[in-house]
Amino acid sequence: MAEKKIIKQQSDGTKKTVTKSTAARTTTSKKTAKVAVTEADKSKATGLRVGAIILWVLALACELVAIMNVTGKWYLPDLFPKLPDNYLLYLIIFLVLDLIFLVIGSQLWKKANHLDPCSRENKFRFFIQNQLGAIVAILCFVPFIIVIFASKNSKLNTKEKWIAAAVAIVALLIGVFSSIDYHPVSQEDVDQAISLDQAQVYVTAFGHCFHLDENCQSLHNTGELIAIEAGEETTTAAREATRQGYRLCKFCERQLEQTLNDASQGEEVEIAFIKEYSYAY
């Protein structure tokens, strides 16, 4: 099998050293009390969610100001006469600020969900919690787009209306697609990760899954892997990977299930043999 380059990820997530390996890692991490979501995780997630909500409120405020500018109810040059008289310019500025606050808030929200995820059992709650950023993105731009075409008292001419609407639509698309969590982590994923007592797991530079074996069949054409180990606040390498937004590879999951099934069948055969042997004597 081709030799793979393993880049070891340090605890700070940035410093890396390079090693090489051809054999799968089978070492286990040291035994510690296993908690799926620690109090530190919950505390950090709460802080991130509060930060996200504050940024989303600022984004909605920018949209409100932009709407007020469209209708002429609030205009910066009225407050600061030295500013240039250009409705379209201020609309674009507020829409850009709206997008910036929205995207940063959504990234914080997604990171919080990876630290303290909810269960998949309640599908509606799971969807809302993980895709709330995309929902907020719609609220941050769709009302503005509606108002800009529906308002009869708009201070913009037809050409400026279309320019402002185009900017808002582009911002909407960027906001929605950057706010969607394409690989949400569930409580079940975390519970599974905490049970995988391996010293390290492997990820690729642009992948979304973590692998238990560097020779996983999905990695045949991958020459460079990043090894993730348990961090200071996590008890297993797999849990650290889920904190970073990775999910267990389906191939590794099937292999793990097969291994567990084989082990279970082996125990059943051994127990049956012992019983049969004891009855014989």
Task: Kindly summarize this structure in a few lines.
The chain has 281 residues and is of the alpha/beta class.
Q: What are the defining features of this structure?
A:
two-stranded parallel sheet; single chain; 8 helices; 4-stranded mixed β-sheet; 9% strand; 281 residues; alpha/beta; elongated; 2 domains
Strand order of the largest sheet: 2-1-5-3
Main sheet attributes: strand count, strand direction, barrel closure: 4 strands, mixed
Q: How many domains, in number, for the residues? A: 2
Shape assignment: elongated
Helix content range: 55-70%
Mean pLDDT: 79
> Could you tell me the strand content as a percent range?
5-15%
Q: Which oligomeric state applies? A: single chain
| Structural class computed from helices and strand pairing | alpha/beta
Q: Alpha-carbon distance between the termini? A: 50 Å
Order of helices and strands: EEHHHHHHEEEHEH
Number of strands: 6
Question: What is the overall number of helices?
Answer: 8
Rounded radius of gyration (Å) = 26 Å
Which regions contain 5 or more consecutive residues with pLDDT less than 50?
21-33, 269-281
